[in-house]
Amino acid sequence: MTTANTTVWDTKTQQFHGGQDWKFLNNFVEDFSVTTNCLGTPVKAIQAARDAVATCHHYPPANQEPAKSSLAEWIWPKHWETNRDRLLLGNGASELIDLVIRSAPQGSWKAGPWDVQYKEYQRSAETNGRDILSPKGDDKANVVCIVNPCNPTGDYKSIDELKSWILSNVQDNGVVVIDESMQIWVGPNFREDSMTAETEFLEKTFKERNISIYVIHSWTKIWSCTGLRLGSIVCPTVAHCVELKRIQVPWSVNSPALAFLDEVVRDTEYLEETWRVTPIYRAQLIERLEGLSNGRNWEYFGKSYLSWVWADLKDVDTAEKAVALAKQAGVPVRSGKPGYERPTFVRVAVREPKQVDVLINAWKDL
Fold first, then answer.
1. How many C-beta neighbours within 10 Å does residue 291 have?
2. Residue 276 exposed, middle or buried by CB count within 10 Å (0-12, 13-18, 19+)
3. pLDDT at 14 over 70
4. First to last CA, the chain
5. Number of Cα atoms under 13 Å in the Cβ half of residue 169
6. Model confidence at 21, in pLDDT bands (50, 70, 90)?
7. SS3 state of residue 132
8. Is the whole-model pTM more than 0.70?
9. What's residue 125's pLDDT?
10. What is the spatial distance between Cα 173 and Cα 52, in angstroms, rounded to a whole number?
11. CA 108 to chain centre
């Protein structure tokens, strides 16, 4: 059984996020409300983090090394030394999102062209007094933020489509933030379709239109380490990175997180298994959801390689019942109502079949 409902968010000041129910479920089985890797946390990396706890009587390195260089070499295998100084680590993506939004020129803000996207960017924009433009409108904003692939909808723009969208939606002298946290799931060739590889485009756009393009990653999803709070940002120039570092809180990434990162980028087998098994488990999850739909035309959104399914159950009561039953069974899912304002939707993480069994059993009477 579960404990009484517990509210952990200050709804007046904080943005709702999945991943909180597990702490208050005494029958907890698995968290389907977060889009973390179905393989769980890499074993060697979590051991490195444990070992680093023994150094907690020391400050973390102020230059974030050697973890930063290790990540740089992973992002840019051939050119990491020339790009490393454009890279900054942060306390999850959330810290870096706020740093960029706070430092950007005042004015308007616009989200990506999706039906809805991760709301932390908009929260930061609203907190900093920006005018919020419609993502579907033609108006250009001086700050645009696009989550690609989009969480929760699962939409995705190729690199050429992304470039075109950016140039059409941001004002000269503006700022672009691209969140590629889920882009690694594209597959072994993900780097070829990532904005991190488009150094010339970033330089040209900055030189010709004075548009600053940043690329943010939350590493807590692909490597299933949300409790460690680990993110990074690739800046358009070294000077941009220096300015962000100037307003960043010192030592915002702790020693266990740095040790985890330094080790996890070497775990190639983990990523290979991720790319192999995630599409299989995701297809199986959709097939099992279809078996529950009983002809109700539920719809499932997102690319086949992603770590979640965005499901439209077509009815508010059904969606609310699904959220409640999942929580009661110790397998919480993410409601589409809070934050996303899509009350007929639920977001369901891709998980191992034996864990999905528990969720499907909980939903057998939907």
1. 10
2. exposed
3. no
4. 19
5. 23
6. confident
7. strand
8. yes
9. 87
10. 42
11. 23
* DSSP annotation of 130: P
User: 85: closest CA among 65, 102, 105?
Assistant: 65
Residues 59-95: b if buried by 16+ CB within 10 A, e if exposed: ebeeebeebbbbbbbbbbeeebeebbebbbbbbbbbb
Task: Please check whether residue 310 is in contact with residue 152, taking contact to mean a CB–CB distance below 8 angstroms.
Answer: yes
Contact residues for 65 (Cβ-Cβ < 8 A; gap 6+): none
| Residue 23 scores a pLDDT above 80 | no
166-151-84 Cα angle (round to 5): 60
pLDDT for 124 equals 86
CB 187 within 8 A of CB 150: no
* Residue 231 and residue 96 in contact, taking contact as beta carbons nearer than 8 Å: yes
**Distance separating alpha carbons of residues 160 and 15, to the nearest angstrom:** 32
Q: What pLDDT digit, counting tens, does each position of 317-355 carry?
A: 999 999 999 999 999 999 999 989 999 999 999 999 999
Q: Which residue do the tokens 């700022």 mark? A: 175
pLDDT for the residue numbered 4: 41
| pLDDT grade for 121, boundaries at 50, 70 and 90 | confident
Helix axis angle, 159-169 relative to 199-209, nearest 10°? 10
Q: Which two tokens stand for residue 170?
A: 């941001």
